Fold this protein.
Amino acid sequence: MKILVTGGAGYIGSVTTAELIRTGHAVVVLDNLYQGHRDAVHPGAAFVEADLADPAAVARVFAAHPDIEGIMHFASYTLVGESMALPLKYLRDNLVNAANLLEAAVGAGVRRFILSSTANLFDDPARMPIDEHERIVPGSPYGESKFFIERLLHWFERIHGLRHACLRYFNAAGDLPDVGEDHDPETHLIPLVLQVALGQRPHIAVFGDDYPTPDGTCVRDYIHVVDLAQAHILAMQALDRLGSRKYNLGNGQGFSVLEVIETARRVTGQPIPHVVGPRRAGDPAVLIASSDAIRAELGWVPRYPDLASIVESAWAWHRAHPHGYADR
Ligand code: UDP
């Protein structure tokens, strides 16, 4: 299949592009390089530098590649904290950009769409682990913007027959040897902890140790990006057979912030000092996914179900590329 990957120069999009090409698909990457890196794009993919905010540029991509059969949509603003300060960057721009993409897609006759969605839809879960029946309560304008796009997809299916899968990921982590996480600014726990191991930061700040969890720090479900990529590919292949789907994606096991730091100490052999600070606004105490549905329906089996192997893969990337893509 020829797949359009928006945001294919970003962290999860670039890993998915590499996995698509490895498994025999053709890929067109559309990215505005706002957060992405040109060097992150697999050399086997066609690359178009364009902005989804520009409908004419988006239409040109489909005109140049009339054989696109499916879309994986990663391109968006993704920072929960920033979305609390700049809500319209998320509520307006993520929505309008997705609408521009969808308009061009149905105009070009595309019938398959996979959305990179988020666990930030579940700010007030009644049950843990969180399954697909959980009530949607977006935790931020970022999460709400992804919910807006899920709703766009609902209507595009009813009106245009566009089949879609919404994949709500929990905490994406881990890297491939040559394709990895390089955010500026970096806000995620595992890369920040590894920056401490590399001597680039003096310590890791732990955002609160007074949560109602066993050690007082927040518990999260970390999932390897390669397993996320695999889920996208399986979901795309199953759309014709199963119809539209929503899946929660995690390993089904939670680790506290202190457990992540301890794992990184073991993997790296470095002391990694930590300092307990105040809570970060908007952090729920525990987020753990139930991924039973995607396992049962698509046969998805994570290759990296344990935290140590996720951190090992991240350490291999960060050690080889201490300054990210600037080192390539
Ligand atoms: N966290 C932390 N210190 C940091 C960054 C993150 O204690 O410097 C915590 C954060 O409060 C959360 C967990 O680590 O409980 C994972 O945060 P991250 O930003 O990686 O992902 P999120 O859960 O926000 O998607």
In short: The two ends are 30 Å apart (CA to CA). The chain has two domains: 2-173+222-249, 189-220+252-327. Residues 87-107 form the longest helix (21 residues).
